[in-house]
Amino acid sequence: MAAIRALAVVLAVAVGTAHAVVPQVPTAEWLLDQVKILSAADTEGRGSGTPGADRAARHIATQFRAAGLTPGGDRGTYFQSFSVPTGIRLGPANALALLGPAPRALVLGADFTPLAVSADGVEEGDVVFAGYGITAPGLGWDDYAGL
């Protein structure tokens, strides 16, 4: 889990300037530069399919190249095509219900709000409480123990 979080952070901050050099061990200053670049106005929030997201993706690819990573995407690039549902509008068809011993329908806008990239579907499963989702073996703490 920690490795996945670390990878996500590295991927997120690796979107710095196209001409930045990736240090062997990323410094706090370099990481902050990457965050500033990714959150700059010209990345337009990095929404899927926007020019800002394309700028961010090109920068990430440049950082990967500078770090010596082997491309694993489409046609030998660092990029991978995928579809994202967009333009979803809220309306009466949006529904969410909790089933079980005390079933109840949730109210759109009060109890839940679907994301604009949400897809239709039906899911069933148990709900568990996992605290804050922290695993810290050195401190003897694991919110996932016993789940």
Structure description:
By secondary structure, the protein is of the alpha+beta class. The model is unreliable at 1-10 and 12-19 (pLDDT under 50). Strand 1 (96-98) and strand 2 form a beta hairpin. The relative contact order is 0.10. The longest helix has 16 residues, at 51-66. The protein contains three helices and four strands. The protein has a domain at 2-76.
What best-fitting shape do the alpha-carbon axes yield? extended
Share in β-strands: 5-15%
Name the poorly predicted regions: 1-10, 12-19
Order of helices and strands: HHHEEEE
Number of strands: 4
Mean pLDDT, all residues:
82
Helix content: 25-40%
The number of helices is 3
User: What is the structural class?
Assistant: alpha+beta
Arrangement of strands in the largest sheet = 1-2
Give the termini separation: 15 Å
Biggest sheet character: 2 strands, antiparallel
**Rg, Cα atoms, Å:** 20 Å
Features of the shown structure:
3 helices, 7% strand, two-stranded antiparallel ribbon, 27% helix, alpha+beta
Question: Strands, helices and their partners?
Answer:
Layout: H1 2-13, H2 28-38, H3 51-66, E1 96-98, E2 104-106, E3 135-136, E4 141-142
Antiparallel strand pairs: 1-2, 3-4
Compose a concise summary of this entry.
The protein is α+β, with helices and mostly antiparallel strands and 147 residues long.
